[in-house]
Amino acid sequence: MCAGPVLRGRGGLSSPLLALVWAWLLVGERFGLVTEVGAVAVLVCAALTQRLR
Question: Any idea of the CA torsion for 43, 48, 49, 53, to the nearest 10 degrees?
Fold first, then answer.
């Protein structure tokens, strides 16, 4: 059995946040409050889904 898709799926939940971090580091992108709150909400939901398994 291949575990690749399962591992990729777990990492996929954090990819939007990683995109924001890279944009900030590489090009100095500025984000508003709504974007920051949304990123935190995604992380919290991802953490909850992992704990509820």
Answer: 140
For 7-53, the pLDDT digits (tens) are 555 566 677 788 888 999 999 999 999 998 988 888 888 888 877 76
Dist CA 53 CA 34 (whole Å): 29
Question: Helices H, strands E: what count in the chain?
Answer: 3, 0
Q: Are 17 and 39 in contact (CB under 8 A)?
A: yes
From the number of C-beta atoms within 10 Å of its C-beta (0-12, 13-18, 19+), residue 42 rates as middle
Domain ranges of the chain: 4-51
